Amino acid sequence: MAEPAPDEEVEAIGRLGIALLDAGYAVTDVSRIAKAVARSNSAEFTVGALPTGVFVDDGDRTRVLASTGTSFTFEQVGIVGKLAAEAESGMPWHELQEGLDRVYTMHPRYPFWLSLFGSGLISGGIAVVLGNPWWAVGLDFLLGVLVGAILTVAGRYPRIAAILPFFLALLIALLVGLTAVVFGIAEIPFFAIAAPLVILIPGAAVTNALIEVSAGDVVSGGGRLVAGLTVWTLLAAGSVAGVGILGGRLEETAVIMGDGSGLAAEFVDPIFGWPAVALLAIGVGLFLSATIPVTLVITAVLVLAYAGSVFLTPVLGAGFAAGLTSAVLLAGLRLVERGWPSLPAIVTFRPVFWLLVPGSLGLIAVSGLASDSAGSEDLLLTTVSTVLGLVIGVQVGAVVSEAFRSGPGHNAPERRK
Predict the structure, then answer these.
(1) Residue at 335 is within a domain
(2) Are residues 137 and 89 part of one domain?
(3) Handedness of CA 351, 355, 359, 363 (dihedral sign)
(4) 136 Cβ contact list (under 8 Å, min separation 6)
(5) pLDDT tens, position by position, 140-198
(6) Whole-model pTM?
(7) Does one domain contain both 62 and 123?
């Protein structure tokens, strides 16, 4: 029988796994990273992961460490990725512990008001990209600030997180609908309701779940998939309820409020989508507390993703365009991560899910089905094809990047003094 691993090693590797889970890594990646760190440090124990915890078996007993449920900022995620790289290259266990302690005691990089401004930029940027009227873009910016404030405050009370999707969707639908009533607007694009909710839409979570299932982690992947679909359903239910309370009805991707003749619906010219993508990236950096280098990388990534969507979708279709774009971007970002572990792909690639819109389309499709809206089946089919394209693209990107690297998402760099 193998000698039991020292408690310091077990605690350090377990805490690293928990930090990776809190950072948003799929359990497939958490297990792989933890095992690579154990091997590189000649630690003789087996490590596994579930969405809620990590277990470490040293040959004598199995110890389980539960996830803290903490939501990390992008800056914290970057530091965790760098710690994982350094741990694989031989970082002493006590230094790893100290690094993790610093991560969990960090404060957001930007002040509260600037973070809320970033949340507004995310919502307003998405509203422009989705082709809303100008009045909806301005309203969505304000509603994005409101959603950001509620999420920030509610983050201190984990127990209410489960009900937030429904009540936030209900609130946003009511506020958008009331604005239409006050100004006599007859038709509202449903995208105007979806834009402020984009931060809540679990497009990345559902795609992550499918990746885990395809990698053989059926229990964790299935659990994530159910959780993601539940959030989608709650968002759709809240949106439909808000529209119904005001007497509106859904028709394809629009909400009909009556025979309005007030504010004219002047839609955004598609050319404004390009600067909107840059503003979206800045908003992500501010709201999710990313460093300036990470924000610059996210900006470049979103511009490339938008270019792929604009130029490839008319030729290849939404699903294939999303798959090809995500494969190229993810492979490139993982290679970037190889040289700069503080730029983890889990951070730099995540906003791509929001931009390629499987989440937003899914919310609208599910809402349409809930209200028997015409055309919702076609929209749902488009959503499914886009999500599947993303999943396949992510898998291809991961395989391609693995051909050039080893270890937890990168070759372990030499530790610099």
Answers:
(1) yes
(2) no
(3) positive
(4) 127, 176, 188, 189, 191, 192, 195
(5) 999 999 999 999 888 777 777 778 999 999 999 999 988 888 887 777 887 888 889 88
(6) 0.82
(7) no
